[in-house]
Structures are given as C-alpha cells and as structure tokens.
Amino acid sequence: MAGVHQSGVEVLLGVVDRLIEAPSGAAVAALAEGLAVPRSSLYAVLRPMLAAGWLEAPRRGMVRLGAAWFDLAVALETDAAQPAAPSRPRLQGMTGPARSFLWNPGFTELVDAAPFARPPPYVFGFSNGSRANLWRQGLIHGVQFAAAEHADRIAALRIAHADEDAAAEARDIDAFLAMGVDALIVSPLETEILLPALARARAAGLPVIMVDRLVGDASHSLVQVVGPDTAIGRLPAQWLVETLGGRGAVVMMVGDPEIGPLLRRARAAREVFALAPGIRILDTVHTEMTVAAGRRAMAGLIERWGDAIDGVWCDSGLHGAGSIQAWVDAGYDGRVPPHTGGDQNAVYQLAILHGVKLAAMDFPPAMGIRAVEAGLDILAGRTLPRRIEVHTPLVISRGCETASVRADVFVEDHVRWDRPPSLILGHGMGEDYDPTTFAVGKGAAADGGARSILRTLDILVWLKAHGGEAGIADLLEAVAMPRSSLHDLLGPLAGHGLLQRGGRGRIRAGPRARAAGFAAIGIADLAAVAEPVLDRLARSTGGAAALAVLHGERCIIALGRAAPGVPPIAVGGRTPVNWTLAGRLLVAELPERRLRWLLAAHARPRRDASLTLPELVAAIRAEGGQRIAALAGEAGPDIGEAARSIRGADGQVRAVLLLRVPAADLPAARAALEALDLPDTAAPVRTTDPPPVTQAALP
Questions:
Q1: What is the average per-residue pLDDT within 577-598?
Q2: Where are the alpha helices (DSSP H) in 425-570?
Q3: How many other CB atoms are there within 10 angstroms of residue 458's CB atom?
Q4: For 320-346, how does the pLDDT look when each residue is reduced to its tens digit (9 = 90+)?
Q5: pLDDT-derived band of residue 89, with 50, 70 and 90 as boundaries?
Q6: Contact 146, 372 (CB under 8 A)
Q7: Which segments of 224-379 does DSSP mark as H helices, in order?
Q8: E-state strands within 19-163
C-alpha cells in the first residue's frame, strides 16, 4: 500500500479496523506505518474522532476506540429512536439564562441592534488585556472555539494581547477600528486609559462587546458579557452560614483586591455574613489567584487561628485548592472545615479525596463563547440584554445541601477525574476540551478530505442518536450536503460494513460498527461466546440475563437477553460500581490502591451509605469471594439477582454474568450459573488508571 493515495475516509476505516483488532489501543506511529500514510494525514483523521468520542487517548501517542462506538451498538438494539443529538460539542455550562436575569426584581435594559445589522461574512476583533493565568487561557480558547464553530459567518478572527499593558491595549483598540472589523470584543484592563479609545470606537459605530471585566459605565460598550459575580459570592456564603448552623468563625480568601469581579464577590459574601449575627469573620487574606499562594496563605491562617476556624470562604478554587492542601499538610485530613470556591478541577478532586464539604460556582470562561454569539446577534440586528450574565451551576458536595441552597449538580458528578487538576471548568467547549492540546484550524487532511471525515462522523452521530437507523432525507438535512455527494460517501462506508443500506432509502449502522462497539469496551472476543450463553440462561430460568463489564469507572451492561414477557436488563446502562451486584463483583479483586481510589472518587451512596471506605472495601471483597453471589431486594421488591465472574487466561475478572429473576427463583438461578462450563478468554479487561493527584493522595 506504500505510495498509494488514500482519502481521509479510507484512512478512517483503516483506523477502525486496526483498533478492532487491538482493543487495548495502538501507537499512532504504528498506525501510520501500518496504514502507509503520512503522520500529518493520520492526525487529520484522529483529531476529529478524538473530539467526538469515537477515539480515546489513554496516554500520549496512543489511541483506542472510544465509548461512542458502544453507544452506537446499543442504539442498534433499541426499538425507540432517541431525541436528536447535536453533531458538534455541546456548550457545557451555558444552558439557560443566569439566575440574575430570572430573579432580578427590576427590569433588564435591552439593546435594539437593528442599526448594526449587515450580511455576513464578518471579521471579528478581540482585544485581550491579560494572559496572566489559566482562567484567562480558557477565555481566549472560548473566543477562538466559538469563531471556529461559526466559520460559516465569521471569515476571520483577529486577536491582540496587551499582556497587562494598558497603553498597548488602547493602541490595539484603535488598530482594530482602523482595520474595519465588524465587531470588537474587549476583555479590558480596568483602567481609564482605555476610555478614549473605546469612545472613538463607539463614535465610529463599531459595536463593542465587553467581556469579563468592565471599564467605566455601560456607555463605553454596546453589550457587556460577564460572570454572575454577586451570585458566586452570595450563594456559597449563605450555604456556609447554614452549614455552620448560623454560628462560627470564618476566614476569607480573596484574590487580587484591584480586580472588579473579585471585589464584587467578596462584598456579596460580607453582606451575607453581616446578616448572620452568629458568624464572625476572623481574618481576610489576599492571594495571587494561584494554588501555591492559597496554600501559603492558609498555612499562615492555620498557624494563627488553628481550630478556631470553622469555615473557609474562597472567591475561587484557584486558591481554594491550595487552602485544602494546607489543611491536609497540617494534619487535618478528614477534618478540613467546609470550603467554598470553584473554577479549578483541583478543588473538586481534593474535596472528594479528603472529605471536605464544598459549595462552589465556577466563574465561567465560557463567557468568551457567549461574547462571540452576542456579536453575531448584534450583526443580525437582534434585540438582546445590555448586560448578559453567563449561567453557571451551583455545585455542592453530595448530602450537603442546606435549607435554602440546593445543588444544580453534585461535586462528585462535576469533577473531571480524566483531566488534570489544573483544568478550569465552565469553559463551554465540550467534554473533550484539553487546554494543552487545544488548536483551531488544524487538521485538514493532506488530500483535502477533512470535510468528508467530519461528514462521516456526523452521520455516525446522527445514527447513534436515532436508534442506529435513519432515512436518506434525514441524513441529507443533518450533514448539509448534496444528495450525490452523500451517496458517494455512503458507498465506501457500506462496502466496508461500517454502514448498511436498509429498505425504502434507509441507512443503518453495519456489523463493523457493532464490532467496534464491543472492542471499545473490551469484549470483542467475548461477545460471540456470551450471546448464546445469555440466551440459554434467559430461557432456562424465565428471567433476564446480562453481561456486565468494567469500563472506565462504571459498571456497564454490554449484552442482554430476556425470556418472553420479561423486562430486559437495559443494555448500555452505566452505574457506579457499588450500586449493583455485578459492579461489585467486577471490582472485588482489584488491587487495594486502585479499589480505594475508585470507591473514593466514584462510589455513590445507596444501600451502603452508612459504610466507611474501609468497611465498603471489606464488604465488596467478601461478596467477590463467592463463586456464585446472590441477593434479593436490591434490584427491586421481590427481585433476586445471581452473578458469576468470567475470568480471562490471566485469572483476572473480565466480565460478570448476571441473572435477574423473581426472588423465589433465586436458588434455580444460582444452580444455572453454577452449571455453566465457562471457557477462558484471552484479553484482560481494560481499566482506566487514576490521575496522578489521586495516587499521591492515597495512603
């Protein structure tokens, strides 16, 4: 194949084939050599597949099939089509208006942008005052991401970074005005030096969208896109008051005292504390908005006040993470006072690992995305609020809600264990965003086939969202391409078996897609053996049978069969490992360190809510020590479950056979599992290693 030109779609199909045969993953270099394509052409295929979840990168230079393939395989067995899913990454953390809009007792000032309406394409300018921290990086990436998402209307995005130099930012604004950009986004340094340049832009009719910080009054920009500073200060402070029962001493950690958003958060928190007579502010410290500075500052507070501190209010997790670490350093592991402060992934990871009660609202860098969208709304002549606050959820540790402060999402569901502690959440760029690999405008295939690759992935996404099958007319609308081009694309996909043609102009996912789904969860070889076994078990017991595997940190139902008239065990279901008998058996023999990490990070309280971590580990070990485990009542009243582990040639548990029957039939179910002659299989189940911060924190 060396020297033979291959299209991007042919390379994509080759990648899928090779990873089906190597479910644990393959090196990118080996794929390039095996497929006889240049590394650049291969990366043009891998990047969009990684972004959409069709591939995963377990470590640098390696790829394997992603869970999206299994979701597609599940869709093939689902009768009812599910609601349509977007083909582009959903803008996380930006759902719905901010609380400040919904709960504002006054009226919102609106802007009629009709005088600014003009047809696309547009040129946007972005004057950015600072790149001083990781949060700023997320804001910049958000602007770039949104411009790329709207490339059909935004022909160019021009960016100038002032890097803390106010005079330079003033010159940048004048330069954008001279260039003739259609809209200007400004993330300003908070200084009056910028006011003359902003006034000149307004006088020339250039729509200015202020983002993050503000300069002067509202007259210096058409629209302001900001974070909910008052809510970020007030809601967690009220939670802290109620968590302490209205009595106690708190310390406050405030970032830079000259930055407007931080001052507004602190003022809102002090209002709450002032209205609680039993709350006393012991001390207030200012940090540099870094983990290291927060750690040093809290170490000093602990040395001065020690056990007198009942709670810690932080305006950001950038120093909140450092505060928690300082308490652990001081010997308070398991006894760290309640904290507030979001943004950084580390504060959520540390709160879970060390049992810290936490309430937080991320200051969303997704406002960069919203600023671009506001610019598009202005140029379309729409009416919009003069002040747009970007929604961010209230995140609280599970079981720690208070009378008036309830969680939008729990800490345990908000944290990202698959991302580094330094990740800033609320970025709005989808589940796969990684600031270390973020790039815009890269990845075009050497043969010009980037569009075909994206359209192929869009077709797969559409099928996954519609039960594995769709009509040609629906696909034409979904992927926005001519009918002749779609048929040209479907030909090689159907010939490969990734897709198959159905009757009446319909397209279905094909057998290679199903094989990829099983390979993605590590049962490519086990599926064919397990299916007839599940059929026999379901028929002989009159119940429902399933094959469960450990994928990542969840128990996932990979295959299922049921006797006629019996509710099946839902294929594709993902549950915390401690919730089900099958899940507990899957992890019962894991090494102590990994099992403790997995339970500490991903267990969810259910029937074992009263158990400590060591007690939960011991209970799971005991259950897993049985050849056939069985119990009644967990899956529902009068329902019994029996389970047996399937081991690989290496002796490790690969999967679990699960039988669900009426509780009275549980002895027969145990006997049916006991009678099975299970063959050994070759490949061990694939697991996900815990991140370094977790390993370091475990004893």
A1: 89
A2: 450-465, 472-479, 483-496, 511-520, 526-541
A3: 20
A4: 999 999 999 999 988 999 999 998 999
A5: very low
A6: yes
A7: 229-243, 260-274, 291-305, 317-329, 345-353, 367-379
A8: 26-27, 55-56, 62-65, 110-112, 122-128, 154-161
Comparing CA positions, the residue from 172, 143, 2, 41 lying closest to residue 448 is 41
Stated as kind and residue range, the H or E segment containing 412 is helix 411-414
Q: Assign 3-state DSSP to the chain and report helix, strand, coil percentages, each to 5.
A: 40, 20, 40
> 38: how many CB neighbours lie within 10 A of its CB?
12
Q: Is the pLDDT score of 226 beyond 50?
A: yes
- Alpha helix (H) ranges present in 542-664? 581-587, 592-602, 613-624
Closest-CA residue to 76 (of 607, 658, 560): 560
Q: Before 277, cis peptide (omega within 30)?
A: no
Q: Are 420 and 691 in contact (CB under 8 A)?
A: yes
Find tokens 């009159």 and name the residue.
Answer: 542
Residue 398, phi-psi category: left (phi > 0), alpha (psi -120 to 50), beta (remainder): beta
Those residues whose C-beta lies under 8 Å from the C-beta of residue 625, and which sit 6 or more positions away, are 588
Mean pLDDT over each residue of the chain, to the nearest integer: 83
Distances from the Cα of 533 to the Cα of 243, 526, 571, 574, angstroms = 52, 11, 16, 22
Burial of 545 (0-12, 13-18, 19+ CB in 10 A): buried
Radius of gyration for the chain, computed over Cα atoms and rounded to the nearest angstrom: 28
**DSSP bridge pairs for 160:** 127
CB atoms within 10 A of CB 477: 11
The number of residues making up the chain comes to: 699
Q: What are phi and psi of 48, to 5 degrees?
A: -65, -30
Across the strands, what pairs with 660? 544, 641
Token pair 């039939």 is at which residue?
665
- From CA 236, how far away is CA 394, in angstroms rounded? 8
What is the Cα 142 distance to its own chain's centre?
15
Mapped onto helix, strand or coil, the DSSP state of residue 31 is helix
Q: Are strands 506-509 and 499-501 parallel, antiparallel or unpaired?
A: antiparallel
CA-to-CA distance for 476 and 486, rounded, in angstroms? 7
Q: What is the pTM of this model?
A: 0.54
- 3 state SS for 617-642: HHHHHHHHCCCCEEEECCCCCCEEEE
- The label of the residue with tokens 């039993």 reads 278
CB 347 within 8 Å of CB 358: yes
Candidates 55, 73, 69; CA nearest to 15 is 55
The pLDDT value given to residue 437: 74
Tokens standing for residue 303: 């040395």
What is the distance between the alpha carbons of residues 96 and 102, in angstroms, rounded to a whole number? 10
Q: What is the pLDDT of residues 101-159, one digit of tens each?
A: 667 777 778 999 999 999 999 999 999 998 887 888 899 999 999 998 888 899 888 89
Q: Which of the 8 DSSP states describes residue 438?
A: -
Which 3 state secondary structure label does DSSP give 184? strand
Task: Report d(CA 231, CA 239) in Å as an integer.
Answer: 12
Token match 């803008």: residue? 91
What is d(CA 289, CA 165) in angstroms, rounded to the nearest whole number? Answer: 19
pLDDT of residue 88: 33
Q: How far apart are CA 203 and CA 30, in angstroms?
A: 59
Of 309, 242, 305, 307, the closest CA to residue 273 belongs to 242
Please, what is the Cα angle at 364 between 375 and 152, to 5 degrees?
35
pLDDT in tens, 21-35: 888 899 999 999 999
- Closest by CA to 136, choosing from 292, 294, 314, 318, is 318
Share of the chain above pLDDT 70, in %: 88
